[in-house]
Design a protein that fits this description.
Helix content is 31%, strand content 15%. The protein has 72 residues and is α+β, with helices and mostly antiparallel strands.
């Protein structure tokens, strides 16, 4: 993981490993990758399972309603 961070210029982001897979059950994760969107209050706004290309043109229309949900 450290080599990946270094090769992509990722800094000041903690590395958390779970070799036993305990987090999968705690967070009810059925597939990897899973993206969690957390609102300003620290509450789960959305959970999206599967690969998502956040740089794709259709990512913003998918993300916008989820972000707006967390602003009220």
């Amino acid at each position: 993981v450290r080599a990946f961070y270094d090769s992509h210029g990722i800094e000041n982001l903690p590395i958390a490993l779970d070799p036993e897979g305990a987090t999968l059950g705690l967070l009810h994760i059925d597939g990897i990758p899973t993206t969690f969107l957390v609102d300003r209050q620290g509450l789960l706004a959305a959970k999206l399972e599967g690969a998502i290309n956040w740089a794709a043109a259709d990512a913003l229309p998918t993300l916008t309603p989820l972000l707006e949900k967390g602003t009220s």
